[in-house]
Design brief:
With 89 residues, this protein is mainly alpha-helical. The protein contains three helices and no strands. Helix 2 crosses helix 3. It is flat and about 65 Å long.
């Protein structure tokens, strides 16, 4: 009974979940923040579906995008600073 190919298949099946993290390419998993945005916009006594509500949701989305861009830029700046200024003990 040959177990050579079976060992390789089992090893691949065990290693596959560990390797899937490499495929992420730096993009974090999207977080569903629609409930938070809905609660925030409704707290301003705005009717759902009105122009003010739509503008509120749009502004929250823009603010979130800007915060993500700032975080990404700060991470890139830190990485560049670490590469250009290595600490030598």
């Amino acid at each position: 009974m040959k177990l050579g190919p079976a060992k390789h298949v089992i090893a691949l099946l065990l290693a596959a979940p560990l390797l899937t993290g490499c495929l992420e390419r730096g993009q974090p998993t999207m977080v569903d923040s629609s409930a938070d945005d809905d609660a925030f916009c409704r707290a301003n006594n705005v009717a759902v579906g009105s122009n003010d509500y739509v503008n509120c949701r749009k502004n929250r989305d823009v603010q979130r995008g800007n915060a993500n861009a700032r975080t990404d830029r700060a991470q890139r700046n830190l990485a560049e600073q670490m590469l250009n200024n290595p600490v030598r003990p």
